[in-house]
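Support reply, case 0932

Customer input (verbatim):
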Amino acid sequence: MLREERFKKILNEVALHNRVLMTDLAANLDVSVDTIRRDIKELDALGSLKKVHGGAISVAFSSLSPSRNKIYALPEKTAIAQKATSLLKNDAVIFIDGGTSCLELARQIPAHLSLTVFTISLSVALELQNKPKIQTIVVGGNLSRETNICLGSAVVRQMKDIRVDLGFIGTGYVDPHAGLTEFDYEIVELKKALLGSFKKVALLCISEKLHSNHRYTTCSINEIDFMVTELHPDDGLLKSFKTMGVQIV
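Our regenerated output:
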């Protein structure tokens, strides 16, 4: 595979999943980990992604306030966010996860809505500061230098005392049978704790992530109440999710 083609595929995977492992990229592209390591180092030097231990993350995901022209699949994520706002009710208490789809939701919340919003994302919190009718509460913990998201046991402890009407979350991978999965066990444990604090759960997910899975399971599809994608609810890609009882928005 030519170097330029590898670069394109690496950047697409990083942009789609926000963060990827070198070992996964090497397996998917059928090259050595050393080759992927060199590629990531070059792409980091070009400012196309950010090299981290064991892999890479997208520039938009690692930025505290990412420029919208650097967000992957922005039209699709904007459509998802706009559809997700239909689930919001005035005076509700909600949670918004980290990630670029959730950040777009924060941007798209109508100015007239009065909400209390819990979040572990500094990017989401900063965006919500522009909306005077929203009370924003950051659930604090160990702040990731890579993603500006609070992680760790402190977040888990705080979320045990919180009960929100609706939690909006993202995922790296989703499949009707495997459920929501990630490659990072710490993220999975955190999301499991978050799910226990939600009366209802809404998954924000672009269609490119559908029917994909990874190592660690966050939850089964049956634990998701709403799935919001950019697709029409009757799209064939969503049929298997609907048969599992998920309401498609």
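We compared this against your earlier run and they match. Two observations from our side: Residues 3-17 form the longest helix (15 residues). The first strand starts at residue 19 and ends at 21. Please reopen the case if you see a mismatch on your end.
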